[in-house]
Each structure stands twice: as structure tokens, then as C-alpha cells.
Amino acid sequence: MTIAPDLWTLLERSQHRFVTAQPPPQEGGRPALDTCGTTVIAVKFDGGVLNVGDRRATANFAVMYDHAEKVLAVDEVTLIAISGSYARSLEVVRYLRTSFKLFERTYLQPMSLDGKLAELTRVVRAGVPEALQGIGGFIPVFSTFDLEAGEGRIFFYDGMGARFESAEFGAAGSGSMQIRGVFDYIVKTLGPFHKMPRTDALRQALIMLDIAADLDAATGGFAKILPVARAITAGGIVDVPDDELLKLVDELRTPGQQAHQG
Question: Which among 172, 169, 167, 144 is positioned nearest to 157, based on CA atoms?
Fold first, then answer.
């Protein structure tokens, strides 16, 4: 038998399916309990890409957890911001980490950006049968720093696995639709995100997260728990410190402060 060219092929040859063929049984005709997360935002800034996500995870109408990590590193320059089924999202991120690392060790070079995007497309599409049955739906936002192009890049997906690249921003989750027009308003009034300093881009992302929390019950915002914020630059992934987030949140809570900063 020849060596499997990638992790997906290896799993198939070992009769291990990445996706279960049937969803868990439902009780009393109700959908199975599936903890979901929203809302995640990705915006460019001068020097990279910033990812921000609230910390709330819900199941049906119940808040299940208020410290969910929704922005996860896949490798040194790649972040996945997750929305939808939390269990499914973590499974996908673990698969991608292993797949990228296996490729690098097998071929003695990092997987290309096109290869990484193809892997994510493959796992999103693999989950469509489950998503159509009401569980396991997962919509990612893929952010990376393209070392060859020397710029941050943002890709988002639909539920069927179609991939799109955004020039300035991306968002996913139930709160993302409510703030869709705000992105364009910010670009038209303040200029493109990719020309903003990181602090300014972070401030705008926090404002949009706050609006999403006001309009979407599944989005936690920053009123109770600080969101997670991570940035990617040519030097890699860095966490935005809590004191930097707290300073901006305090500004946004102070009437009139935003106008002076904007």
C-alpha cells in the first residue's frame, strides 16, 4: 500500500470516518442538545488581522457557558474563529492542527495557504449531512498572515463549504447578520480597516460586538466577560492583553469618549 498523501486519506483507509454517519438520537422529537457559540469578528489592521469573539455558548435558549474560547490557533500564523456547534468546531480545529503538522513532517515543508483552505473546505462540507439534520452546523472564519504576499488575509464560508475572501473583514454567528451593514459604514466613514492601527481596529470590533450583543440573545458582548481577542502579524499570533481590552471597554462605556477617540 502506498503512503497516504494526507491525513484525510489516512483516516479513510483506516475506515475511520471524520463525520459520524447518523446524528445522535433525538428525545421526544426535539432536536438533540447542541451547544453553540456566537459571535466572531475578523478585521484587518495595519500589519495583520485581528480576531474578536464573545465568550457565550448556548444550547437552545439556555446559556451553557460564559468562558468559551472561540478564536483558536491552528498553526503559527493561522486562526480559526468558530461559530455554530462548539463540539464540532473543536473537532475540526484538532483535525486541522494534526493535518497541517502531518503534512509538514511528511513533505518537510509547511502546507500552502491553498492547501490549508482546501482542508477546511473539506471538513465543512463533510459536516453538511449532519447540519441538514439540525445538529453540528459549523461556520468558520479563517484568518492568516500570508508571508508570501506580506499581508493579512480573511476567508469566510457558508454552510455548504463555499469559500470567500474578504478584503477588509469577516464575521460569523447569529449576531453577525445584525452588524453586517456596520462594517461597511465604518469603512465608508473611517476608512479601510487595513489602514487602521491595531487599537483603532480593535475599538471598532468591540463596538460591533456590543451591537451584536444588544440585538442577538446568543451573543455575550463585553458587559460581563471580556471577549477573546487575538492578532496575527508577520511575527505570528499574539493575544491582546486584558488591560488593553479593559481600557477600550471602559472608553466605550463612557458617553462621548468614542467620539474623541474616533
Answer: 172
Which of the residues 2, 9, 35, 38 is marked catalytic? 38
CA–CA dist 189, 166 (Å, integer): 19
Active site residue 38: yes
Grid cell 461597511 is found at: 184
Task: Extract the C-alpha cell encoding 30.
Answer: 426535539
Q: Could you tell me the mean pLDDT of each successive run of 10 residues in the chain, 262 residues long?
A: 77 69 52 72 96 89 86 95 88 93 93 94 85 80 94 91 92 90 95 96 96 90 91 96 94 67 47
And the C-alpha cell for 120?
Answer: 477546511
What is the three-state SS of the chain?
A: CCCCCCHHHHHHHCCCCCCCCCCCCCECCECCCCCEECCEEEEEECCEEEEEECCCEEECCEEEECCCCCEEEEECCEEEEEEEEHHHHHHHHHHHHHHHHHHHHHHCCCCCHHHHHHHHHHHHHHCHHHHHCCCCCEEEEEEEEECCCCEEEEEEECCCCCEEEECCEEEECCCCHHHHHHHHHHHHHHCCHHHCCHHHHHHHHHHHHHHHHHHCCCCCCCCCCCCEEEEEECCEEEECCHHHHHHHHHHHHCCCHHHHHC
Q: How crowded is the C-beta side of 183, counted as CA atoms within 13 Å?
A: 20
CA distance linking residue 184 with residue 165, whole number of Å = 16
Amino acid identity, position 107: Y
Cα(121)–Cα(118) distance, integer angstroms: 5
Instruction: Provide the pLDDT for residue 116.
Output: 95
